[in-house]
Amino acid sequence: MKAHLLILPALLMASPAFAADTSPAELLARYSAEAGTAADPARGRELFLANHSGGKPETPSCTTCHTDDPRAAGKARTGKAIDPLAPSANPERLTDSAKVEKWLGRNCDSVLGRACTPGEKADIVAWLSSL
Amino acid sequence: MGAAMLQRNPETVMLTARVKVWDVFVRLFHWSLVAAITVAALTGFLADAAWIRWHIAAGLAAAGLVLARIVWGFGGPTYARFADFVPRPAALFEHLSEGPRHRGHNPLGGAMVLAFMAAILVLAVTGLALLGGVLKTGPLASLVSFDTGHGFGEVHELLAFALLAMVALHVAGVLLESRRSRENLAASMLTGEKEARPGDHPSRPVAANAMAAAAVMALLAAILLAANASLASRPIPRMPVATLDPVYAEECGACHMAYHPSLLPAASWQALMAGLEDHFGENASLDEETAAEIESWLLANAAGTADTKPAHVLARTAEANPFTLTETPFWKHVHGDLPEALFASKPVGSASNCAACHRDAASGLFSPFAIDVPSPTRINKETQQ
To answer: What would you measure as the largest C-alpha separation in chain A, in angstroms?
Structure first.
């Protein structure tokens, strides 16, 4: 009951694209199942922190915008603040599968120059939710 | 000095008796007008957008002073009255060929006073038309379009130069006439007194009707304030759309502020939406349905639908960058003086972060009244953190 009272105003205030339809654990399970392998948070961390060369020159790394600490706020190239990515610091994260798909689709293309595989997505989700 | 004269020529003392020519209202009016026009000219010709409030206040003060002076021209004492100084053409020529001395305004001076009054009133009206048409504020905002306001702005500017020339002529005239009649005319505008000399052009003495004049001034002020209030409450046509579409605000506000649709013309939005996969070096792609929804909303509210200054000036985009606001010639022109370090500083981050300096950026208005550039001390403090 209490939880509902809290969630309702949050839903009303949230933008229409925000629809909490999943949880970090569910996402992790889904991506791992698609990949057919177990997720590894250490691999996710490595991918997130590394500098890549296949993507757009302006965005060599996830850290370009999210910094190397996903529990802290990041900053877009335009100067706009980005709320923390780690669910421990920002409970809205990894709870909207369409949003996660949209941003991983964009950001993997910007940084890596290609889509991330389900295994990579599982690793990233595993690392972010382990923080 | 008076005693020395008395000894040499007792007649002189009697003849140089001083008379009150400029009453206290005329003197106050004159020097307040000098102050108001000085402020209006300095802020208009030299200062940047931050000073526009002072410019408008000084211009309105000048116009108010002139209106009060016009009333005083009918209700003031002898030399304050139009009847004493509105020149007949014949008197102008007579004065030029060494006519009699005038204690009040001489015919040329009187003509200049009338020209000043007309110029200042027309400057005020064209200024309000510029303010209303271009910046969509003030009493004329509901009546004047951007293009018309812009046209009035050109008249305003020409007239401002003309006023400068008139001030120069006026000062030169005062100096020349002071020499010619061997008296300090500027000083008499301070003391109010002049010598009475034999052969002075006769003026018909009239007493001031101060109460009636004050009543008319108050009535006039009340009428103008009421007209202003009623005009200001009228709806302003073709204002930019007041609320952002929530899907647009969410999707196009994720990486930067959601730019108001009236800032770019429809063709620019179309070009931008066609290239979201490589959007300023990032992938900003959207699913087809959302993209189509956003695009149609952008087109329905693009620059062509609004009559604001940004909708006109930013719509002239750079050919090579048809949808980059910060590459438009106007943007570069008005922001050219701002240091690069300011844009890179922490509170701003990037030139595209309009809202860091423009409080009303989200509305698309970008009024010069709403500019707050983060101060250098704040910048230094925050970048050091």
So the answer is: 50
